[in-house]
Amino acid sequence: MNGHERPDDDVQRAHAMVDEQDLFALFAQRAPNPTQFAAGIAARLRDREAQPPARKAAAWLPIEAAGLVGKNLWFVVSMPALLLVGIVAAFGSAARLVQGVAQNRAPAQNESQTRQIWRQAFVSIGCCFGFAVAMVASAVYAPHALRDAFLLGLLASMFVLVLGLRSQARAGSMERSQVASLCIETMWGIALVLMPLALFGSVLDLVPSPLTTFAALGIGIVALVPLALRSFLGVLTVVGIAFAATTIPGSLHLAPARPTLAAATQAIASAEFLGGQVASAPMLVDHVLELRAHGCAVELRGELLETMRSQLAAKPPSAFATTALARLGTLDAEAWATLANNPSIRHALSRLSLDKQPLVPNSYDDYQVHCLLATNQLDDRTQDRLAERLVAGIEQPHPLPLLAAAQCVRWLDLIGRGGLVDARRDRLLALLTAHQVTTGLLRGRFCANPQTLAGAEDDSTDHALTLLHRLGTTSIDHRMLHRALARCTFLPTDNDGTSWVGLRSYRQWLSCERLGEPPAPALGALLVDERLTIAVIAFVLLCLYATWLVAPRRTVAGALP
Amino acid sequence: MTDPVFEPDLERWISQFRGPLVGFLASRCSSWADAEEVAMDTFAEAWLGRSRMRAAIDDLAGVGAFLRGIANNLLLARQRQRQRGPRPLVDDVPAAPGAVDDDRIDSLRRAFPELRPELQEVLRMHYLEATSAREVAALLGTTPKTIENRLYQARRALRALAERHLRTAQGVNS
After folding, report:
1. Set of chain A residues whose Cβ sits within 8 Å of the Cβ of B54
2. What pTM was computed for the model?
3. Between the N and C ends of chain B, which has fewer C-beta atoms within 10 Å?
4. B98 → closest Cβ in A29, A32, A376
């Protein structure tokens, strides 16, 4: 044993307790046998490597909507194969069609340039418009399946391109320059739709780096060379590379659970630079803890931290600053002892157990519990009183019931009375079900009054997710919640951090939901992560193939009689 | 039986969290055997799914939260399976410590179910394998100070309850 220490030097208190050796003896028979335990884990690891087909297939399921169809075995088993076959078949059939179109083109006709331009515009504008409609509809109604909407749009674009080429061939205006420009316009249209959505969806994830800028410039310069040599195939190759280079990273950012860590980093940096308000400290602490959870060694520095520390000596100390510093773990025993001696804090702590009315604590008052714990003031009596008040806080009507329940539950856990929460699990789950919006655009989210949608803009959904994490997610409509939360990723990060809260909640919920899923094997991971890359490459190849098939414009008039 | 050889990180996870995790699960299962089974499942699932873990592999609090999440999910899945299957639903009485011959220890064993559930839980997690408060705290998502506080309360309450049982038993014998 290395971490538990007997409370300070109080022999009387030690005598009032059970001897540790007796407790070890009490549990000695129940301790797991280390060898058997390790063997059990090794056997499980072996079993999972030899997974049954359905379990393996579930890991391959390449769409974000996995939760919607996970129970349909046929769908799960067939989906990866269908997708691969779909991409290959779409490419193969489009290539064959293009070949047929190139062979059966009509003789050149004297057609007005305006009609040619309109014909080309029809294909590119059609693709662009269709894509935009599909993507926006998917963003609104099925944001979790956005990547797949893009993939389907890309496959459909192959056939629209073929239709455009057929139209050109019938008109007899199928020359390499025209085919190349049609392909370029189509790709440009797709990229035009995708990029704003990708950028809008993950605002700060795509921070342009100097490398990206130079790469874009380089591609532009390289594209000029074949253009100067009037090699349309060369131009198309370069544009195709540029298209793939912009589309693939853009499409990756369509994943709704993409962490926007850059947003957190930027928020912390700007707060440190500008000094920041102490009232924004809790949100900054959220950012810091989020980054730490991702393995980033982040500490708050600069003027804001100094301001927060200086607030500890204020009379009264700022609750925001104290709670923030407590959550960051920067307060030592001495600091807590000093705080506990502050008259206003002493008064606040004593009121916790002396008052009798129901208690719904504010999140910025968490420091009070930390202070009670750090200074060993949370005796049985205080704990009982506090627990009674918190339970009453859960049960009394409140204008923001989810907020009240989440705060009370958190405090009950903090003071070690989580059992009272477990005893009220059904009641709390019923509260969640009653406050989930079931109709309209906010369907799936939570609010104080689902009928009038009062309080829909507050953090009710975040509080509901906190409760779901604590209680388990069995009785909630997962499908509705998934859609509603995925939609949050399309909100730009605003100043008050509301959408940040949504993003954070969604990631937490997804990670919770996906625990226990089998790991994706290599092919499954390829389909999950790279299906768009495969489809984009197939599309670019089709464009190159179509342009290569068609002969360049003949510049020689031929032998005269 | 020879010990299987695991990767160092998994070895560390097991040595840090085996005791507290079994104790944690024993507070939610009806038997120690079930708790051990789910704990082994949890380690295996966690290790295979470690790429999904947001924290660093050696971050104690992050690993604790990850294991807790998986353990809770596996427990829920197990409960659902049992509700669907032919076996009757297990009762919700958490597992008690083992029986021993010593009177003093026996009085502790009889007093144990009378403790509040959260105090029982922390005793199971801490004393099953003499684990430090840091690991217990990491698994419960709280601070070591809170765990030390609960352990103190648990030991004090258990002493009072055990003495009452002992006195009652002596009164009956005399």
Report:
1. 293-295, 507, 511
2. 0.50
3. C
4. A29
